[in-house]
């Protein structure tokens, strides 16, 4: 009797997509000669690529639009519609993502989430009553001010002058936030934000310090960004009576999660849990004999709500064995990881620098998939 293998990996960041990971592992299993049925179910936890995977699983409609990129230039983006057009799926990276900028353009003092807000406004124009936002891969650290500005929020300095460009550089003099122009349709639209990292807004573990350098921030910029976000938080407390300093997921997407929660009443959720529920992952688990998952790195942080953990936790509820593959795994055995991952495999085939390892990711995944197939064949004879 053929075993049923469910392949449900996350993307390997800066290397291969979740779909490519699944395809490579499937190819390897086939090469092993294992007698099996295979289902590929690539996953995402709110990071770059989440929206497209939701659209594929939910058979949504894609709507093209033109919005502003992180530096304010016109760019083509795509809005997804599911639930018979009543729910929009918007990926922040499509309009406000790092991948839209050249390396020499990275500067979070000058970038904005405006384009994401424009996509939300266009979705409201289509008559949606729910918006699902995937916020991974953003290029901005603006607290979501660009999004808010696109939806009618006005930013003012001490003299009451309007601060026109919603970037941290231009909002250094922010003193007041005027909500009178906020699109009234927001009040009757459910907004759900899929978060892939749980971080605080401010301080040494905040949005500026942790994610600013990834978006091009120098040490000086990190201090300026944290100062801007601190001021934004104080004004938000005065304006909305909401303390975003202690908000779970408040530092994700350069603090944009904090802004949309406070001003748009957005609900911040664990990305992988929501994704797996929305795409009915549990139905696929019903047929599985073994589950294979993975992503670029698996360690203790994986257990804080990353994609492979979400998959493994559901698999373990059904008593299924879970094999995880990653570019990097802990050197020493980890008891907590072992509760969820029966086998944890690093895909590297030889010592290599990061660039070489990344370029070989797909081929190493095929090889490790072949090894997993041989291992499962051996197990069936024990």
TrEMBL record:
A Pfam family: Gly_kinase
Record family assignment: Belongs to the glycerate kinase type-1 family.
UniProt entry tagged with the keyword Transferase: yes
GO MF annotations, alphabetized: glycerate kinase activity
Top-level taxonomic group: Bacteria
A GO biological process held by the record: organic acid phosphorylation
InterPro entries in the record: Glyc_kinase_flavodox-like_fold, Glycerate_kinase, Glycerate_kinase_RE-like, Glycerate_kinase_sf
Organism encoding this protein: Mucilaginibacter auburnensis
SUPFAM superfamilies in alphabetical order: Glycerate kinase I
Keywords: Kinase, Transferase
Protein name: Glycerate kinase
